[in-house]
Amino acid sequence: MASGGWLNDDPWIALASILESAKRADYSHVSKLRQWILDKDSDPTLVSACLGLTADAGLNTDLEFLAELIIEGPNYLRIEASLAAQWSGVLWLMPFMLEASRALGRRADRAAIEANIANLLDPIEGEPEFYGSDLSQIEYTEAVDSRLAELKNILGSDEVSISGGGRPWI
Prior knowledge:
The chain is mainly alpha-helical. The chain has 8 helices and 2 strands; from the N terminus they run ααααααααββ. Helices cover 61% and strands 2% of the residues. The protein has a two-stranded antiparallel sheet with strand order 1-2.
């Protein structure tokens, strides 16, 4: 891609350029993706791609943007941003996901976010603890908070990324 492709008016070309830059460890342009994430006229596929790259290659300020979307965005972006937060695997985003799942009115929307939480906390093998459980909302919140505290203690930080069952990304 040509240098400066991230400035292109075509969002797909800009996205491709930002991805190429990220592959070379230049994450400085990821925040440009916000304009298409927030544009209500953006193609949903573009929004998902921008959120995914934000989660994968974003700096801390980009992950903070995800947290803002999860808490304050319109419902469709709260759910999409929670999925992106799952792909990032960063522990400190989990309380935002938990809060969004409590705040959403539709059961299907809450279940979507709970699936993202389960994909991070439930082991790949064995019975799920964090999805499809019979826990009350209070018990579920306490179980997630307890597991997060345990992982933070084991891993030494909530800034690490985890995957199925709390295994850290290496």
